[in-house]
Prior knowledge:
The structure holds 2 protein chains of 2 kinds.
Chain A (H helix, E strand, L loop, with lengths): L12 E2 L20 H26 L13 H10 L5 E3 L5 H6 L4 H9 L8 H4 L10 H16 L5 E6 L6 H13 L3 E7 L2 E2 L2 E2 L11 H5 L3 E5 L3 H16 L5 E6 L18 H8 L3 H11 L5 H23 L19 H19 L7
Parallel strand pairs in A: 1-7, 2-3, 3-4, 4-8, 7-8
Antiparallel strand pairs in A: 5-6
Chain B lengths: L1 E5 H15 L3 E5 L15 H5 L4 E3 L4 H13 L3 E5 L10 H8 L2 H4 L9 E6 L14 H5 L5 E4 L3 H13 L4 E6 L6 E5 L11 E4 L4 E5 L3 H14 L4 E5 L2 E3 L3 H11 L2 E8 L4 H12 L9 E5 L10 H4 L3 H13 L1
Parallel strand pairs in B: 2-3, 2-4, 4-5, 5-7, 6-7, 10-11, 10-13, 13-14
Antiparallel strand pairs in B: 1-8, 6-12, 9-11
Helix pairs in contact in B: 1-7, 3-4, 8-12
Amino acid sequence: MQQSVQPSEGPELVQLLTPEGERVSHPDYSLDLTEDEYRGLYRDLVMVRRIDTEATALQRQGELGLWASLLGQEAAQVGAGRALTDGDFAFPTYREHGVAFCKGVDPVTLLGLFRGVNQGGWNPYDHGFQLYTIVIGSQTLHATGYAMGLQRDGSDGAVMAFFGDGASSQGDVNESFVWSSVFQAPVVFFCQNNQWAISEPLERQSRIPLYQRARGFGFPGVRVDGNDVLAVLAVSRAALARAREGSGPTLIEAFTYRMGPHTTSDDPTRYRVAADLETWKLKDPVERMKAYLSRGGMADGDFFATVDAEADQLAAHIRAGCLALEAPEPLTMFDHVYAGGSSLIDTEREQLATYLDSFADAGSHGGH
Amino acid sequence: MAETLTLGKALNEGLRKALENDSKVLIMGEDVGRLGGVFRVTDGLQKDFGEDRVIDTPLAESGIIGTAVGLAIRGFRPVCEIQFDGFVFPAFDQIVSQVAKMHYRSAGNVKLPITIRIPFGGGIGAVEHHSESPESYFCHTPGLKVVSCSNPVDAYWMIQEAIASDDPIVFFEPKRRYWDKAEVDTSGSPRSLWSANVVRPGKDVTLISYGPQVKTCLEAANAAESEGHDLEVIDLRALSPIDWETVFASVRKTQHAIVVAEAPVYASLASEIAARISEECFYSLESPVMRVCGFSTPYPTSRIEEDYLPDLDRILDAVDRSRAF
């Protein structure tokens, strides 16, 4: 008999905070934070949503060619991102803006790729956050290899590999499961199951819940409420601790929902019903945490206003920073093709430079 | 210190040197450890350097290259073995989309000093997928460097230079020449990896080749001598980028050029070489640049592979046509 790929609300789904913002306990996972830390998580959620909202607006205004929205996945990303420590390395897809924020990447630098001025504006080593990977699933092997490197260095760091429900069908993802398992590599596979791979529903990727795939590869899988930042943080910390102590990989399936389109080029009204969105709005990750803080007397109107004001400042910073991202000079296309240079590249750079200079002589430039 | 080594053993000695000289060098692939590789190129290395440095991997080529990317990001220098030419394609995406582009995409922040060893070419009577020449795909991919050794001396040095390079290098090994022997002076110093080698000077026609066909070209040149043709043979060694100055200087001298390679001729590296010579040596040429290559068929069944592969007679036929043009 086929199992439903959708989670029940039973113990299978790890949850520490209900959609109404009520704390609940779980037999295997707990989280005991200070009030400052709870408020900090709320602030993260608001900031991350604001990054997304502002970038979407910039795309609509023609300042970005494309944007991949994370709307609805803030808790999954903040919970995972805040579980990572300084020595850890994250391997993202192209939608991990929230993890990037947690790892200290300036949101403006995330925009370069989408504005067409670079292919990833940050140095991965500065933040323990690799460049975005657009080919689906490739980065899970990179994460596994990096984790094998940590083993060889005797490091106590760990790695988190991000991917989605669609990627779970990719060969590379399955190969990374094999590799990490047989080598017991310190990697946590963090699958944000947002239920849609562009237009294809989860049922087209799997006949069993995704977290159960781990068992066949020989390591544990756990399904967590991806809209519950507390549960995601607790589950991620436990998996990272397990990786660090040499017990190998864990697959975390963060069950969530892509509230927006796949990217700004997509039109989800062609393939899913509006009622689903309404259902998931009731599980909103930001509102849930806000309700928890209010119920527990941990925050008042002043606090929420302060966070909103800070988000406004962040949005202004993103907007100004985006508009300041200039197109690179044409000849920079030849930069960094090789670490050790290449006679072929040198020749072609010279050819283009000469060609462009021929226009300069005529009083114009570059054929524009 | 000179010793007589087969090409395979010379690679083995070169790999051993690389492992000794840099603790970040790793060897990974299918059967490279306990077995020593199906061609024994990594024989004895796991025993001496341990399972953490000479890694028998699961049987999945994309995984070999993909995890090598992660290891390289962490600061290692993986040397990946793809067991046979025709098995590289499951790893093609990782090589073309990830390995080749990482340094570029990261504006130089992330280096991937990965060496991808691939035994290539035919002539050993193998079953399908074991005799192919896929080098043109990789030469066509910006961000990769591609080299091929043709003899034991180059095998010993080139593998070490490739591993020491900060760029990803696809290293093609002429599998039917693995058992060829030569004196290798391991105390000498290497010729630059990026320079072509005029392995036989001559004045009438330039044969341009690499990998397994260099030996065939030398045999053809010896045979041609008795017929009154003095052939120059160039071993390219580096396939991307190519040492064009050596090629062009030779063609300007001989005024005739023939490119010899096993890969299917259509849209191949040989085609690129012919085009460049036509562009750069147009006024020196006495005849069109010719290509003696594999046919544009899948690699045929082994009982007729000798009719597919460039051989002495096909090369001499081209020499006659070139000089008679």
